[in-house]
Each structure stands twice: as structure tokens, then as C-alpha cells.
């Protein structure tokens, strides 16, 4: 059984965002090895996947328009919202009690976005636009090819 095009492409976009986030985390970790713990790094990659796939599906696939602009908007949202969900995942990994996680999620998401968003938001925006270009070219090359 294969997934329909919409969810399949959204999951693919999530994987691409997660890969880019992994590269960014490794770069930051190389600059300051004590900056990020492995749990924080895993939270960043998971957040990029979840938010990236979700925003791609909502912004691009549900509109049924795989344009570069929509891909860039999906990337912009992914790069911005991932900071908040990363801290949510990190907090849940440290303690499953939501009472302690909510302040971490709210108080660290904004500074994280302001400090690291300078890198992550433009990179995610460019990634979204690139995925849209690749996907539109893939669809053009598949035009006229019958489904199996």
C-alpha cells in the first residue's frame, strides 16, 4: 500500500527539514560542544520533522498548489514554529509533567527563535522553496506516465 501524493510529499518534506535541522545542530555543536545535549539535538530534529511535515501538508498540499511561494511560506512557518516545539519535546523528554514543561516551552521558545532563528528561519524558507521546485519538476516529469 502506498500513500497518496499529499501525505507522501508532506512526509518527504518533513524528512528533508529534519535532515537540514540535523546539519544545523551538528554545526552548532561543532562550534560549542557543550551547547546542546543529545536530547536537545534529538528534540530539534524531531521538531523539524513534525512541524515541517505538518506545515507542508497544510500550506502546500491542502491548497493543491506546489508553488515555490507556498513552499517558502511552509519553510518560514517551519523555521519559526520548530523552536517552540523543540523545547516542548525537550521538556517532555526531561520530565513528563506538563506543569514543568509549559514554562520551559513558553520562556525558551522566543529567545531561541531570536538567537538561532537568524540562521534557521532563512534556511528553512530556502529548504521549503527547494522542495517545492524539486517536487514540481518531479510532477512534470511524471505527467503522462500511467499509474501502476
TrEMBL record:
<feature type="transmembrane region" description="Helical">
    <location>
        <begin position="40"/>
        <end position="60"/>
    </location>
</feature>
<feature type="transmembrane region" description="Helical">
    <location>
        <begin position="72"/>
        <end position="93"/>
    </location>
</feature>
<keyword id="KW-1133">Transmembrane helix</keyword>
<feature type="transmembrane region" description="Helical">
    <location>
        <begin position="113"/>
        <end position="134"/>
    </location>
</feature>
<feature type="transmembrane region" description="Helical">
    <location>
        <begin position="9"/>
        <end position="28"/>
    </location>
</feature>
<keyword id="KW-0472">Membrane</keyword>
<keyword id="KW-0812">Transmembrane</keyword>
<protein>
    <submittedName>
        <fullName>Uncharacterized protein</fullName>
    </submittedName>
</protein>
